[in-house]
Amino acid sequence: CPVILGVATEMGRPMYEKMCYGVTNQITSLRVADTGKLKGCVSADVDIRSSCCSADFDLIAAIDQAATGLDRKRALQTLLAKPGALSALARDKASGEVVGAAISIVGRDGGRVIGPLLGTHEAALPLVHAVAPDGAVTLRAIGGPADILVETLTSAGFEIAVEQVSMSFGGHALPGKRDLYLALMHPTLG
């Protein structure tokens, strides 16, 4: 059966649990007022390139599917079709292997909303810097309270805005590879 995902506040959590939903993970909403002031944005091991061609998009969609277990290619194409949307790929400098990807769009308040942001821990901050060169940024990280992505982003200067739980019907685990970090603009995208 399909995995049905949702996000709940602590107030709404008991209602979903009565309907047989179970907690699968934690969602942490993070925000930074000025990405230009982030600490630790450069990684000597990662090469970042802005993406524009269809081959790059296919790589972004492939790493997203590996991380989520979901085919969200159409949803990602919709995001990238928005005016002002940016995307970037991170490659390991030694091997050339793709180790991360990021997309950002302009939010309602004029700041950038990043999502998805995915890949290896070392690529997270360079990718944030590539798709949000300056100004305010918001994203949601999926992971436990001590998740390495949340820790990386808060140590760089992001502030935790809201903490919620990710739930699925029957408490089924999220599909995909769990050795990749994952941050999403909206956890049910696609």
Attribute tags:
single chain, 190 residues, alpha+beta, 9-stranded mixed beta sheet, 5 helices, 9 strands, globular
DSSP summary: helix tally: 5
Number of strands: 9
Question: How many angstroms separate the termini?
Answer: 17 Å
Shape: globular
Helix vs. strand class: alpha+beta
Q: What's the story with the biggest beta sheet?
A: 9 strands, mixed
Strand content: 35-45%
Mean of the pLDDT scores?
Answer: 85
Q: Tell me roughly what share of residues is in helical segments.
A: 10-25%
Characterise this structure:
By secondary structure, this protein is an alpha+beta fold. The chain has helices at 13-18, 54-68, 73-80, 124-131, 148-156; strands at residues 5-8, 21-32, 46-50, 86-92, 98-106, 112-119, 137-143, 159-169, 181-184. The protein starts with a strand and ends in a 6-residue tail after the last strand.
Spell out the blueprint of helices and strands:
Elements: E1 5-8, H1 13-18, E2 21-32, E3 46-50, H2 54-68, H3 73-80, E4 86-92, E5 98-106, E6 112-119, H4 124-131, E7 137-143, H5 148-156, E8 159-169, E9 181-184
Parallel strand pairs: 6-7
Antiparallel strand pairs: 1-8, 2-7, 2-8, 3-4, 4-5, 5-6, 6-9, 7-9
